[in-house]
Amino acid sequence: MGRRRDPLLRHVAGGLVIAAVAFLTACADRPAPAYLRLDAEAPRVADAPAARALLVVFWASWCPPCRTEAPSLRKLAENPPGNFAVVVFGHDESPADVRRFFGGEPPAAWRFRADADRAAARAFGVDALPSSTLIVDGRAKARFAGPRDWDAREMRRLLERLIAEGAAARR
Question: What are the Cα distances from residue 36, in Å, to 21, 97, 124, 132, 138?
């Protein structure tokens, strides 16, 4: 006949295992965010800022995932890594909708442009929002589909790595 274990001991042991897993998970670096690697000439962005790397984002104030990523995208745009800039193409029908969302003009660091006719989205092959393309030295390097935590350490590391790879490929 087998021994019966004390239920309290089982709960304590189970709790210790969960705590250990949580601790180890918190200490480990999270994996890099998902993206599609590209290596193609990028469509030209008129009046693009003079930056080596450009994150082109397609966004709308009426899009719930876009609204979710807006604060982190703003932080990235206002505190970019290295020679990097953000350009956001908005799919809102009216500039008033955008101003209403922001409580004024869009953040200057977004370099916001209206794309209500979707011409820029077609040029970049965008069919869902939000969607972002990283351009390094005129070449599309990565596509990010869906909302992102743009200011997260893992995302910043990934962007820096992709930008550095673009520089190495140019040499």
Answer: 30, 31, 14, 10, 17
What SS3 class is residue 65?
helix
Looking at domain 32-170, its CATH architecture is 3-Layer(aba) Sandwich (3.40)
Q: Note whether 63 and 57 are within 8 A (CB).
A: no
The three-class DSSP label of residue 88 is strand
| Range from 16-25, 40-49, 81-90 that averages highest in pLDDT | 81-90
Tracing tokens 């193409």 back to the chain, one arrives at 89
**CA 71, CA 80: separation in Å to the nearest integer?**
14
What burial class does residue 79 get, using C-beta atoms within 10 Å of its C-beta: 0-12 exposed, 13-18 middle, 19+ buried?
Answer: exposed
pLDDT in tens, 66-75: 999 999 999 9
What's the angle, vertex CA 136, arms to CA 130 and CA 140, rounded to 5?
A: 55
Q: Where are the domains of the chain?
A: 32-170
Put simply, whether the predicted model's pTM sits higher than 0.85 gets the answer no
Angle, CA 87 vertex, CA 154 and CA 150 arms, to 5°: 15
Beta strand segments in the chain, E: 36-41, 53-59, 84-90, 113-114, 131-136, 139-145
Q: Where do we find the tokens 């969607």?
A: 131
The contacts of residue 161 (CB under 8 Å, 6+ apart) are 32
Q: Tell whether the torsion through CA atoms of 29, 35, 40 and 46 is positive or negative.
A: negative
